[in-house]
Write a structure and sequence with these properties.
Layout lengths: L1 H18 L10 H31 L5 H4 L3 H4 L15
Amino acid sequence: MAEEAVAGADDARAWDERLGWAFGLIADDPAERVAALVRLAEARKKVADALGRSNEMWRLTLPLGTQEQYREPAFLQAPSDVSPSPEAFAA
């Protein structure tokens, strides 16, 4: 039971470290809001860039077929929590 409480606290700390800056978007302090908006813009740009790279790789590997695309080293190196598995496309 105590281990679950510690794990929950660790999860909360990790959440705060990763997304705590988002609270700045609703902060009373204008400087804090500006800093949060800058960070949000940077995050959006990184997401757009990553999506562009992923889409370009996907287009380049289309001739291989869906199953072979997932064996492409560039897709194998992508983190599994952001990359769909081949089973996601199996129908």
